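Dear all,

This email documents one entry for the complex benchmark we are building for the journal club exercise. For each entry we list the sequence lines for every component of the assembly. Then comes the predicted three-dimensional structure of the complex as a token string, followed by one or two observations. Please use this as the template for your own entries, and keep the labels exactly as they appear.
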Amino acid sequence: MIIEDIASVPAGNPLYRWEPRTKLIGIMCLAFAFAAVRDLRLLPVMLALSLFLFVLSSLPFSYLLGRMRIPGIFLLAMAVVLPFFSGNTVLVQLGPVSLKQEGCVSLLLIAVKFLCIVTIAVVLFASTPLTRMLGSMRSLGLPPLLGDMMLFTYRYIFQLAADFHRASTAACLRGARMRSLKSLKTTAYIVGSLMVRSHERAERVFHAMTLRGYGRQDMDFYKAKIRPPDVIAGSACVLAAAGFVLFQLLMP
Amino acid sequence: MHVPDGIVPAWVAITGYAAAGGTTWFSLDRIKRKYENPREMIPTASLLTAVFFVASLIHIPMPPTSVHLVLSGLMGVVLGWYAFPAILIGLFFQAVMFQHGGLTTLGLNACIMGLPALLAFGIFRLRYLRGGDKPGPSMIFGFLAGFSGLVLGALMSSLILILTIPANLDVSVERAAILSLLVAHIPLALLEGVFTALVVLFMLRVKPGLLEAELK
């Protein structure tokens, strides 16, 4: 099992230099505004904004496509169901199957919203190292317990994936067939042993951290300063998000 | 069971965040009341969260396709009140690293998987009424916790999807869709139940303390 870390945009890129707190607030507002879109006239604007951010990030297109593979399966299921079962206005009749206008419109709306939100989410996380992102989330008020758990979990994900891979390989060498239903017991025992070993490792880690001062006071490692361009970029995103919502409220 | 971005209306996504925020606050409050120093359990809970993250990537063949384990029931069994924050964190990393789930639907997905995990935690504790930590009752309640964790999650996600996607579905089509989505999840629920029972059996033999009130 190999877990790839998130790709990163080049360090000199304006999106990389954008301070994470204002970036997180701005892009989250934009994502929720996209999710709230019901008016088809806003779809080209959404697409243009997402495309602008993606081009600015200089990420390869293949990376974005790779990221859409897993959630895209869900969209595919929608594409099979919605145009044929949703709505009453028949566009095309193909024997017993009819293509409905309302279903096609719903599918178009869902597909564009999905595409745009995933694109800006990819840009957000690829342009911010995850440790900085977690630091900024703590600085924005994430409970310290949750923040510490997130940092710890991220620290051990790759190590435990390697441990699991090693244990699976060892089981295979002893004759287990790991990709079969018959190996469920072996897989369960490997997961169980990972949990037991992790528990013991966690006790040692906690003692070592306590000796280094962990828990005596809330430590804030987040040092990034908000500069005027960060405020401008964040405000532009929030204003664009407000524009999407207001357009739908005010325009017939 | 992961709802992607853009599928549900914004009000559903925002309600999901509010519900997840409330449940996280409630879980953290229970944890703080339980421990004099809640930070003491952070490394254990985090490492177990990382194990669940890794284990949820295991694909098991189930003809004609293969499925990945959800493990919300097992998380409830092992992590107790830490299960909801752990699921929230796991889903955050899944959304960030694989776009599995979504950024706007993170709260909704946390509720879909986290609330069943808390139910599984409650179900597993019922074993104390029927023989405590003996292997038989522990495996039975472990199976029920894993099974019900997945069934409740599937029911919640099916209802949310069918009732809130912006489409005019016929009532009979809606009912048929919910039913077929639920039926499609039954084999996976059985698999999760068996898997949870097997992990419970392993831990009873190797480190029974991990299943007791230590974390909960």
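Observations: The first strand of chain A starts at residue 90 and ends at 94. Strands of chain A lie at 90-94, 97-100.
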